[in-house]
Amino acid sequence: ALEQKNAALEASQRFINEGRAAANIQNEHVVLVDDVDEEMGYAYMVLELLEGQDLAQILEGSPGKRIAPHLAVSYVMQGLKGVAQAHALGIVHRDLKPSNLFLAKRKDGSAVVKVLDFGISKATGQGGLNAAPNALTSTKAMLGSPLYMSPEQLRNAKGVDHRADIWAMGVILYELITGALPFMGDNLGELFANILESDPLPLRQRAGDAVPLGLNDVVMRCL
Question: What is the 3-state secondary structure (H, E, C) of 122-135?
Fold first, then answer.
């Protein structure tokens, strides 16, 4: 019972510390953390209210379960602005996926991509911080976040740096443009083996000439 109590206290304090650190990321492309505190034994975080859809929902509703390359690049470039500021503060997200990139409507009707959920983010320096996406298939629902994890994150999640987020953004771009993931498997073991040992099929081989050579090279470099 004492161990459970200590674990709960530690988790609560970690939640509060992570929330306060995430609040330091003042960028229009990161969901705003308005308040983080604890009351009556419950830790809580107050986030800005967003209207819109995440990219997993948008992908699910798109023809062919894919998005035009220019739109996919626009969405990811916006998300990268928020992630870059997090990296500058020594924070690695570690759980980037389409459901954590939210296309929100501004009050003037325009749209902006915001990065969600720094809940498992990791500090790489002073001042930093110390689930499954909406599924397109039952296999994806089962595998969840590991679909977007880099080889080094599979080996040692505590030891990753900003390159783990670069990998994840490459997987996201690949999926948005092709409607498929660069690495798949019927179970976690097969998925992990493919991520660790296999080379992904080039983007242009899946999506065709609609993908510029430069974009193909960038995504494959991320992977």
Answer: EECCCCCCCCCCCC
- pLDDT, tens only, 86-116: 999 888 888 899 999 999 999 888 999 999 9
* Long-range contacts formed by 178-183: CB under 8 A, 24+ apart: 178/66, 178/203, 178/206, 178/207, 179/59, 179/64, 179/65, 179/66, 180/206, 181/140, 181/147, 182/223, 183/147
The residue annotated as part of the active site, out of 34, 37, 54, 95, is 95
**Distance, C-alpha 111 to centroid of its chain:** 19
Residues 215 and 152: their CA atoms lie apart, in Å, by 24
Read off the pLDDT of residues 54-67 as tens digits, 9 standing for 90 and up: 999 999 999 889 99
CB 165, CB 97: distance < 8 Å: no
Torsion angle, alpha carbons of 186, 101, 152, 19, to 10: -120
Contact 36, 19 (CB under 8 A): yes
User: In this structure, are residues 132 and 144 in contact, taking their beta carbons and an 8 Å threshold?
Assistant: yes
Global pTM reads 0.83
How far apart (Å, rounded) are the C-alpha atoms in residues 175 and 94?
18
Adjacency order of strands within the sheet including 111-115: 52-54, 101-105, 111-115
Spans of the chain below 70 pLDDT = 119-144
218 φ/ψ angles, rounded to the nearest 5 degrees: -65, -50
The question of whether 95 is a catalytic residue gets the answer yes
DSSP state of 119: T
